[in-house]
Each structure stands twice: as C-alpha cells, then as structure tokens.
Amino acid sequence: ARQDFLRYQRVHPKVFSHGRRRRDVLSLKNTTHQDVLQVSFKAFGQPYTLDLRMKKDLLPLNYFEKHHENSSHVIDHPMKRTNKHCYYHGTVRGQKNSWVAVSTCNGLSGVVFDGTELHYIHPDLPEHLFFKASDMKAKTWRCGFNDSQDLWGNAHKRAKRSVVIQPPYKSNARSRYVELLIVNDNKEFIKMKRNKEAVFERSKEIANIVNALYAPLNIFIALVGVIVWTEHDEIVMSSDGDATLTKFLQYRRERLAREHPNDNAQLITDIVLDSSVVGKALKGPICTYEYSGGVNKDHHEVVGVVATTVAHELGHNFGMEHDDKDTKCHCPEKRCIMASSTSNPPSPSQWSSCSKQYLQSSFEQGMDFCLWNLPEDIMGPVCGNGFLEDGEQCDCGPMEFCKNPCCDAATCKFKPHAACAIGACCDVSTCQVVKAATLCRDTVTECDLPEYCDGVSEFCPVDVFVQDGTECGGGKAYCFGKQCRSHDDQCQLLWGSSGRMADQRCFERNDDGEVNANCGYNRLNKTYKKCNKEDVMCGTLHCVHLNERLEFGIESAAVQSKFYIDENDKRYTCRSAIVDLGLFTADVGQSPNGAKCGTNKACMNQKCVPLEKIYGVKCPYDCYNNGVCNSRGNCHCMVGYAPPYCNYPGPGGSSDSGPASDPSAGYSFMVSMYIIFLCIVPLAVITSFSIYYFRRHLKTWWMTKARKAAIKSRAQQVGLDRRGGRPLSKFNIDAEAIKALNISAPVTQPMVPQQPLAPSAPPMPPSQHQKPHRSVSRERGSFRNVDISGPVLQSSSNSHVAPTRPAPARPAPARPAPGRPTGVQRAPSCPSQVGVLDYCSRGPILQNFAIGYGHHLGSGA
C-alpha cells in the first residue's frame, strides 16, 4: 500500500475503554470487543482522537457466512452466537462534520474523514500506516458503466408515493434499508492467501465503509451475508466486464434470490477487467429481480479505496449517473463518489448534487419498493444504535452524533428534567409530551385513518387504517391494506394521468395464460398462470392511454404487450405490462387487490372473492353509524362521539388511534349535551304544548288583564286632568268618584251672627240587633264626633252599595233655601279624632260631603 501514496505516516494507535488504561490496539484481537472505544494517535504533526461506537445495525442476527468444503456448501451464522463484532463508526474529536468507519478485528483498518479531508488507516503490523487520500498516486481506474446502458430511458415526472415507516433515530419517514449480499470469487480467495476468515472480514469492512458513505443520503446498509467461492467459481468469470456482469446477474436470479433473499448483490473479484475497468453495473434496477447487482475489482490493498468503488457501483443501481456527464453538477470537493474515473486523487466522502437528483428521480419512479422494510432482527439490544429497545428510555445514537437535549446518550435514559426524548409526540424543545389530540400521523390514502397523541406516551399510536372491504374510490374499489386502488387507478400508476381501464373484452382473454393475458408470472420457472373464468377481472391489467412510455418501474426491464380485439365493426385496444420489482414483490402489472370485480366482490391475489373473505373482525353495532371500523375491528368515531362504540358524546378517534379532540373538553361538552337534551329541550317542548293547548284561556286572561289595566290607566288620567295634574289621595277618591255616588253635597249659606243652625232630627236609638254607633251631635256653629270610619268606595256611575239591612224610611232633613252668599264662612276646626279620612285637608267639598254622609249613616243606623 505504501507505494501507491506520495507520503504516509507511521502511527501507533492506543485504545482507551471503560476507564481502563491506554493499551495497544493490537490487544483488542484476543478480547471481547467493547461497545464504546476511544483510539488516539498522532499523525502529520497533529493529534487524532477517534470516538468510536460499535455499528450494531451493520450485521443482522440472521447474517450468514457461506463457503465451499468438500464440494458442498457450509453455512455459518456467527451473530447467533454473539451480537458482538469489531466494526465501528464514530467521529474525530473536536472536528466538525467528521466521520470514521473502521474495523478493530486485526489492528485498525478503515477510513477517517476529519471534516476537510479523507484519510486511510491501514495495518502494517506491528505498526499502522496513515494516508491522505489526496496523496494517492494517479492511476487510471475507470468505471465500466456505459451511459447507453440506461435501463430507465428518459426520466418521467410523477406524483410521489407516500409511505410511512418507523425509522431509527437520525432518520425519518423517507429512510431506506438495503439488504446487501457480497460474493467473493475464487481469485479473491487466493489473493487473501486462501484465508476465508480474512475474506469474510474484508467484506464486512467494505460494507461498514459503504454504510458510512450512504448515511448522508438517509440510506442504511445491512450486510445479510458473505459468500466465498473457496473451491471454484460458480459462474464463468471473464475479463469482459459486461459478460461477467451478465453471468453474475443470472446467478443472482437463479441461486441467490431463491436461497438468500436480498435487495442487492455485489461481486468482488481479483480478475483484471479489460480497459482498466474496476466496476460494472446497470443504472436503476435496485429493487428488480433481474438486474440488481454489480461487479467490483479488488484493485487496492487499502480497503477504503475498494469500498468507494462498491459504493460507486451501488450508486448506479440506485439510478445515479457519472458526475462529469452534467457540467452543472456541484461537488463539495474536487471529486465526488460518482466520478467516472479515479485518474486524479479521489474524494469519496461526498455526493454531488446530480447524484442526489438522480436518486430522488429513481425513488419517484417507484424503485424503492423493496427498501422500506427494516431487516429482520437487525440487531441485539444495545445503547447507542438509534433504536429504542428493552431497558432503554431513549436512544439517540452514538454520543458523538446525539444532539437530543432530552436524552443521555451514554445511558440511554432521560435527562433529569425530561419526560420524553424521542417520538412524534415529544416536544424536544421542552422535553415534554405534547397535549392529547395532537395529530402525529396524517392520512395518506382514502383508506387510511389519522393517529393522535394521547397526552401520555411520547410515541404515536400504531398505524391503523380502514377495515378491508370498505367501499372506496367512488364505488370502483374496496379498501385493502390501507390502499384504495381501482383498475383505473392502477392504469394511471403505470401509464400516467391518461391511463384508464380497457374494455372488459380485454380481461376476458386472461384465461389464455399467455404473456399478454394471464393471472400471474412465475419468474423462477418462467411460466404464466391461466385465470379461471370468474377471476379474469383480477388478472393482467389491461389499459388504454395516450402515453407510449411506461412511467413506473424500469421500462427496459418490463415486458410490455399490446393487442386488439375487433368486434361489431369496432376495435378495442388492450395494453399491458409485466413490471419487475423483485422476486417477492407483487407485480403492479396485475389487477390490484381491492379492485371491484363483481357485485360485492373484490380482487385478492388474482382471485375474485366475496367481500366476506376480505372483511376482518367486524365492529359491534356498526359503530352506530357515527364512525368507521378500523383494521383492528374497533370503531374510529367521528369528533363528538366516544369510543368504543360511538354511541355516547366524546372526543372521537378510537382506542387504537388516540382521541381526535381534547378529552378534557369532553366533560364540559357532555354536561352541555345533558343540559340541552334533558332540561332545555323538554322544557321548551312542554312550554310549547301548554301554550298551544291553553291558548284560548291564555288569550282570555290576557285580554281581561289588559282591559283592567286600561280602565285603571284611564281613571287615573281623568283624575289628573280634572285636578290639573294633582295626584289622587291614597284612597283614589276624587270628584269623579263622588259624582258616581250620586250624593249632593250641602251648600254653604252665609252665616248670620248669633243665628243658630237649624236643629237636626234627633238620632234614632240603636236597634238591639245592631251595634251602637257613635252619636253624631251637632251643636251650633260646630261639628263634633263625626264618624266616617266607613270607607267610601270609588265606583262608576251605575254602581251602588247595597246595605246589609234595609234602613227605615225617614224624611230627609229640610234644607235651607239658597241665598246670595256674601262670603264663605271658614269651616269649624276639625275634631282631634276624625277617622281615617283626612277630610280637613280636602277642602269644603269633602267637609260638606262628610257632614251629609254622616247624617246619612246616622239615619241608617
């Protein structure tokens, strides 16, 4: 390795772990590898301290190692014995944007990016060599990719697919996971001195570095297995890169895909390929069954250089082209990973702007179909791997990468002030769980249901959706697995917005079992399945469209068909396609699950079945028509109704999805509903009924009351008018009342001095049946003991007071003849006991009235 660089430094790395003293890195070979390490050394005049953490997600628990032995295959699963290994990621202490990917299996080997420049560290036991990538001597290493080998054709814009997953920390809902398989040919085995363990270790080192290179693209690499052809090559190897690639892809289809499922396979060989080619791959087929793979020449002793080549060829499989094809590509450094050649010093730590655009385009074409699933049993429980596992409150990844203010990266526990640290329902600015009814996962399809935070957990509830078999798509489809896809929808997915379902006559041909009309294609034995008569609408999808190019998947990797049906002077066009999305992925060229194929029937795995076979657990009482049934057989209630049955007031949502509105407001809402429906509404009904039933009585009562009020008002007004606005007495006695009694008041005569008044008739003695009345004596010139305690009632002119006993007839006293008055004599002083009627204050008229009335009472006693 030394001869390939202009300069290098010899270094002696020291290891420090778990409070133990520093020791030589070589001592790690015979010890159990620790989860966390610190490695320090000095090179090029400056100190380096590497903070490392074991990359647990590199090797899943089902990782295997396979080789030949006695003309047969031997398979080992080392991760099932222990989840420890010797592959680490980390950073350079104190260096921003730095990253490290190294192995400690046999010394220290890998790459170190200090934030500005890439370095390689390589064992040269008992020492280590430290290189700068910029000091590598110029060599002509060329990628064998030919731009004419573009499987995509021209890029087509289409709507992005929405897929939701549960990603690890530092990733998001768009993270992808590549299950990588590495195969080493017999020449590579010989190069490594026939040491299969050394080949296994080198392959894992390569995968570890590739993982680090793809991390900025939000892509995780999991090495599912390594195969070494220790006795012979299992394909015909050739210096012709194209021929070798073709043979290897065929080997993957026929052997690897069946025996060891993977998303991508890379062959590493020591055969010298023609034209200084060090790698070969096709563009764009990352998830296909036919073409997802590449060939790589092990062209350098430094493992980091070879890892860059593997990352480059894998980039072609992701749909990336060479950076120098487009002069507008921006690379942060002099050269990026997708440079067409390495004749100049490489800079393999960065991706250009064009590479990112190509990657996004391929994902929009649907070629990330196989990359959403996390590898099974990705790792054993360990703090710092970014996945929340048993015994952990949080896991924000390695300490050097963790920026979470709520999580202690060293212990994977909450910090003292924190109630949460990760999860869609955690506010990391406050480290507190957000309030209930906060939307944490929105719907992505018509058949999806939203999820809400419950105010207690930091995690969004599990993703649930509308129950399979629920009608959707305007009656053209039924929900199936959160999707609502009719025949028309699937045609638009394949051919763009102009696509639509062809005539039913096209589907009737699906019982032929041919390439253009069938009920499924078996890629392993290359056979087509015939449809039963009742299933023809669920077989090959036949479309008509205006677009001549396939817009989903790889056009050159798809099998397109077209035929016509002439009937009744009319021609029907039938177009179809078989789309390669991998061996274990459903062909989108078939009628989709859930598409309507008859009355109350839907397609399911190319069968037309009754809805009863699609339904899951039914919800009780059909949620009282106040909600929908979800995929777990529970009611998802509308806002205003409470789970589990949506028959009482409540916040909405379900027991699976959380409350759709604030539950604390539910009690007030419920009380309000009770008041309205149990008090206000019944009272309003009773009142309305009473008014209607007693309307005549109420009308009479109202009119009578109004009449009395009017009479009283008129009487008061008349009194005010006649008295010039003077108010009535407290007994409401006025001149009108006096006239109503029809009693004439005596006329005052002029008084002659010393002339006695005419004597009055002597009073009658009281009857034995009557109570004695006070005598009313009248002396000359004065009135004494006038009894007017009997009240004078106000009445109309037609009213009179009937006596309780008829009074004896008695002639009225003689009245003196009126004369011309010369003056009005002042009334004599009022006696001290006058009765309740203050007649003195009422003037002469009331006084004379009292006198006359007193005589009347006396005569009637």
From TrEMBL:
Residues 380-468 form the Disintegrin domain. It is found in: Membrane. Gene3D superfamilies: Collagenase (Catalytic Domain) (3.40.390.10), Disintegrin domain (4.10.70.10). Keywords: Disulfide bond, EGF-like domain, Hydrolase, Membrane, Metal-binding, Metalloprotease, Protease, Transmembrane, Transmembrane helix, Zinc. Residues 805-819 have a biased composition (Pro residues). It holds the Pfam family Reprolysin. Residues 750-830 are annotated as: Disordered. Residues 176-375 form the Peptidase M12B domain. Residues 792-801 have a biased composition (Polar residues). Disulfide bonds join 331-336, 440-460, 619-629, 637-646. Residues 615-647 form the EGF-like domain. It is a single-pass membrane protein. Zn(2+) binds at residues 312, 316, 322. It comes from the Eukaryota. Its main location: membrane. CDD domains: ZnMc_adamalysin_II_like. The chain crosses the membrane at residues 206-229, 671-694. GO terms for molecular function: metal ion binding; metalloendopeptidase activity. GO terms for biological process: membrane protein ectodomain proteolysis. The active site is at residue 313. PANTHER family: ADAM A DISINTEGRIN AND METALLOPROTEASE DOMAIN, ADAM METALLOPROTEASE. This is Zinc metalloproteinase. The lineage of its organism: Eukaryota, Metazoa, Ecdysozoa, Arthropoda, Chelicerata.
